[in-house]
Write a structure and sequence with these properties.
There is one protein chain. The chain is α/β, with parallel strands linked by helices. It has helices at about 40-50, 55-65, 80-90, 120-125, 140-150; strands at about 5-10, 25-30, 95-100, 105, 110-115, 130-135, 165-170, 190. A 6-stranded parallel β-sheet has the order 2-1-8-5-6-7, covered by helices on one side. The N and C termini lie far apart (about 40 Å).
């Protein structure tokens, strides 16, 4: 069985696609629109903050989230490009269920690395996916769970409520492998990435 892995990315390196299903996946790259770009001042501040060896970037992201006073990428809701895909262009990714080898069905899995407060994870779950959000900071995982508890019911889709999926938030570094053992099979049908690192 072959699954399509669609990656909306401006920063995710192609070499990190192992968790997307490897040889069994058909990968389609799509660029997301640059709506609501960061101001020149915000980009400059982020650039200075990340002017360290790349191996230190996860820690630097965690610092920003832990401080909580400079999060210019946080739009306060799901990315409009993802909403458009799920609501109007679903043919690109198909149904949220896929047939297994034994003839039964399973939910497609979706990963949002660097998920922030979890808006996109909750949106994917509302559309029937088994959605996983990955973040580097305990503080931001708390924010994800808070968003789920407070506003989870507001994420709606044209999917019947009995088909709504689940959302799970994991702490970990995307480029490390420890967190991936939590997910059954360690592969994903869809990876959605939209970060500011591509414009720093």
């Amino acid at each position: 069985m072959q699954h399509r892995c669609i990656i909306f990315s401006r920063s995710l390196p192609e070499t990190s696609l192992g968790g997307c299903g490897g040889k069994e996946s058909d990968t389609l790259w799509m660029a997301t629109p640059n709506k609501g770009s960061l101001s020149a001042d915000d980009r400059s501040r982020l650039s200075k903050h990340f002017n360290v060896p790349e191996s230190s970037h996860p820690h630097r992201w965690a610092q920003l989230w832990d401080a909580g006073d400079f999060l210019p990428w946080d739009r306060g809701g799901p990315n409009p490009a993802l909403e458009d895909l799920l609501n109007q262009n679903k043919g690109l990714i198909g149904d949220c269920f896929v047939e297994r080898k034994d003839g039964l069905t399973r939910r497609k899995t979706a990963l949002v690395p660097g998920c922030g407060r979890g808006y996109d994870v909750l949106l994917l779950a509302s559309h029937g996916y088994e959605a996983y959000g990955l973040e580097i900071s305990d503080k931001v995982i708390e924010k994800c769970l808070e968003e789920k508890k407070t506003n989870g019911h507001t994420y709606t889709s044209n999917v019947h409520s009995d088909r709504a999926g689940i959302s799970t938030f994991l702490k970990g570094d995307f480029f490390a492998s420890e967190w991936n053992n939590v997910v059954s099979g360690g592969t994903f049908d869809l990876i959605y990435d939209y970060t500011v690192s591509g414009i720093i």
